[in-house]
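Structure first, sequence second, as always.
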């Protein structure tokens, strides 16, 4: 039997942030200080590029596109292990996933956080909380992930640790508490004073590898005591005995404070805040110490749950390596030698050569080869147990599939991953059959890798269309088709994914009756179609909800399913411009059947026709995707940027000036108005402004826009015919 204490020294963490906050640089420094690499490379510039950004496109663009996994061993400041952490191992094993910051690749963050036990939220200490910081925080809360914050770039002009802490409190509603006091500011930032020990930490050597701990500088003594008092007041409440003793005038010991902070973090009630400059090699070792001390192990994290498909009950999972296997495939990549499946083991032990069961397909899967990932490098392993994050080579499955060790447990299924809806699409084509085959192969690979990437054939035109989260998202995949598969594809203009909905309720009463010699067809459905209220939506793009209110058996139970399918058939193409219909609910209240002529087909047809009539009577409207846009620009270009956004039908939500003197402008802008914005923004700001954009909501199109879209759509459909 494997000792559970093997897991006590394991930390499964993610590093997430707004784009360009320095999280990949931070990860590189962690690899260096944990002896995984022996040379530090910059994310941008010369050299080989960041170790964790192994894709050529990542190195070229200086951004993270896919989440990368690695395993490091933190030996502590002394190099002799982390004796303060529980467990029988000397070193703390940290499984790290470095995730993209660009919003177009947000699903990479989603599926990473789904399988992690803790996270580091990286903030730029100049800009503080930015748009993607808010998105990432929302994702962390969705999966109940404990986190700590790291204020990076403390060496930059305008850096301010106190503003960063306040932004966490005000914008993200965190109970954010500084664990350190900065020594110096901006280009004079030298290190930080630990508020628990009152000791100053400096980072010497060419790469900050030598941590020098000294007494607190005299000029900071008063500030340190002030901040320490605030910290003690904030954390003591996470242990009743310590809090009681503190209120009686007894100063908590260092161990008491560590205990309180750990309790606060792991109950998601406290966000300890650390600081440094990853690029200048300052502050990373202190952060690693905090990860080992405070973030949960697989033994102490919130118990994962699975759904029992027999009765839809929720089952709490005990992370015992000796029990039957329960694991989740959270990321899929197709490689030269077969599929690589990133897997988190929640319970049990997985050995090379084992046969496991996929609970979705109910099929047996043999585990031929397992590897521990170090970015794009891999180490063959023979065994892995609860708490591990590994990759399995050569099996066939989908992202989100659950594996169990026994066919007695195939009714268990781990919670899947939240997948946002695609908002943009474009057509792609190839001139000859050879190129077409290459394109098809590439698209099939991308579909398995990325649940936010969609491929379909337009019924009217017969053209292949791809859909995704933004222009950059699709641009990357088009470029990968060319580079990885040699497919010379032609790309059409980007198209907006419009939606249709209704604004009023409409009753329906439709009878389908057909007599064709022998047995006929008969089915009558009566009910009402209503707009779906916001509070009743289960997701952003709720198609429709079906309510069976039949009483007395006027429609036999065996036909109710066919009715629901019939109503659903109509939702793919709305009456205005043949876009999908969303946010409706159907109440089936009455009907009639015939002993001989009624069938599933008859009621499906009746429901289909009833739905078409009802939608037309329910004041249908066209809806367009609205994007949340955040522009960061020097003050001199503020007027031009705001004027341009307004000309794009943007609603300006406000602006603020960050400590570095740049203006941050927030706006809601229709997606249709944002094509080519990168070039326009670059031109109007002399290349000095930047922006991020993410889907916010669907809103009704103005009447003139609706008319234009309907006209263009009608012409397109006519030409396709």
């Amino acid at each position: 039997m494997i000792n559970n204490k093997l897991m006590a020294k394991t930390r499964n963490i993610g590093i997430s942030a707004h784009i360009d906050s320095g999280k990949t640089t931070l990860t590189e420094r962690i690899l260096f200080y944990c002896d995984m690499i022996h040379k530090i490379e910059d994310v941008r510039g010369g050299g080989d590029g960041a170790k964790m950004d192994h894709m050529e496109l990542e190195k070229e663009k200086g951004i993270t596109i896919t989440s990368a996994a690695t395993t490091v061993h933190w030996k502590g400041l002394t190099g002799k292990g982390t004796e303060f952490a529980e467990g029988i191992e000397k070193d703390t094993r940290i499984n790290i996933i470095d995730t993209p910051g660009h919003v177009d690749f947000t699903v990479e963050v989603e599926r990473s956080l789904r399988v992690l036990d803790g996270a580091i939220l990286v903030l730029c200490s100049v800009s503080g909380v930015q748009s993607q910081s808010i998105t990432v925080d929302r994702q962390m809360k969705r999966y109940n992930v404990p986190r700590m914050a790291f204020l990076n770039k403390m060496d930059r002009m305008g850096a301010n640790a106190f503003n960063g802490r306040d932004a966490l409190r005000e914008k993200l509603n965190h109970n954010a508490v500084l664990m350190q006091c900065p020594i110096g500011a901006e280009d004079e930032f030298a290190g930080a004073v630990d508020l628990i020990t009152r000791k100053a930490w400096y980072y010497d050597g060419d790469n900050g590898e030598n941590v020098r701990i000294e007494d607190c500088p005299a000029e900071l003594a008063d500030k340190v005591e002030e901040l320490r008092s605030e910290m003690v007041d904030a954390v003591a409440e996470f242990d009743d005995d310590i809090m009681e003793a503190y209120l009686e005038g007894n100063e908590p010991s260092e161990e008491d404070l560590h205990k309180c902070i750990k309790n606060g973090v792991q109950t998601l009630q406290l966000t300890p805040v650390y600081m440094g400059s990853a690029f200048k090699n300052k502050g990373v070792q202190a952060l690693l110490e905090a990860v080992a001390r405070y973030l949960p192990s697989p033994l102490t994290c919130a118990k994962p749950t699975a759904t029992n498909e027999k009765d839809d009950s929720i089952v709490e999972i005990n992370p015992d390596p000796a029990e039957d296997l329960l694991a989740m495939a959270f990321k899929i990549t197709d490689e030269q030698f077969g599929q690589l499946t990133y897997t988190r083991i929640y319970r049990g032990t997985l050995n090379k050569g084992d046969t496991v069961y996929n609970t979705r397909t109910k099929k047996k899967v043999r585990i031929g080869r397992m590897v521990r990932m170090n970015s794009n490098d891999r180490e063959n392993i023979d065994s892995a147990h609860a708490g591990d994050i590994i990759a399995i080579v050569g099996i066939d499955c989908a992202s989100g599939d659950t594996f169990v060790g026994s066919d007695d447990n195939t009714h268990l299924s781990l919670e899947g991953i939240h997948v946002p809806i695609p908002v943009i699409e474009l057509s792609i084509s190839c001139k000859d059959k050879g190129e077409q085959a290459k394109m098809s192969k590439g698209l099939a690979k991308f579909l398995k890798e990325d649940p936010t990437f969609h491929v379909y054939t337009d019924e009217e035109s017969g053209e292949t269309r791809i859909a995704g989260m933004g222009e950059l998202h699709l641009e990357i995949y088009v470029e990968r088709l060319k580079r990885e598969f040699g497919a010379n594809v032609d790309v059409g203009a980007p198209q907006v994914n419009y939606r249709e909905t209704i604004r009023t309720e409409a009753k329906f009463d439709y009878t389908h009756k057909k007599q064709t010699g022998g047995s006929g067809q008969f089915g009558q459905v009566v009910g009402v179609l209503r707009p779906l209220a916001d509070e009743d939506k289960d997701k952003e793009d709720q198609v429709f909800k079906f309510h069976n209110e039949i009483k007395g058996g006027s429609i036999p139970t065996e036909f109710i399913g066919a009715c629901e399918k019939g109503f659903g058939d109509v939702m793919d193409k709305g009456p205005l411009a043949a876009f999908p219909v969303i946010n409706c609910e159907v109440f089936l209240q009455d009907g009639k059947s015939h002993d001989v002529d009624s069938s599933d087909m008859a009621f499906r047809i009746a429901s289909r026709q009833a739905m078409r009539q009802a939608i037309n009577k329910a004041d249908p409207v066209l809806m367009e995707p609205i994007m949340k846009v955040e522009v960061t620009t020097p003050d001199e270009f503020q007027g031009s940027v705001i004027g341009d956004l307004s000309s794009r039908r943007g609603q300006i939500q406000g602006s603020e000036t960050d400590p570095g003197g740049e203006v941050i402008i927030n706006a809601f802008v229709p997606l249709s108005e944002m094509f080519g914005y990168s070039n326009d923004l670059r031109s109007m700001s002399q290349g000095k402004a930047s922006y991020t954009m993410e889907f916010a909501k669907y809103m009704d199109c103005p009447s003139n826009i609706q008319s234009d879209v309907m006209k263009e759509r009608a012409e397109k459909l006519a030409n396709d015919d």
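Margin note: Residues 44-55, 61-67 have pLDDT under 50 and may be disordered.
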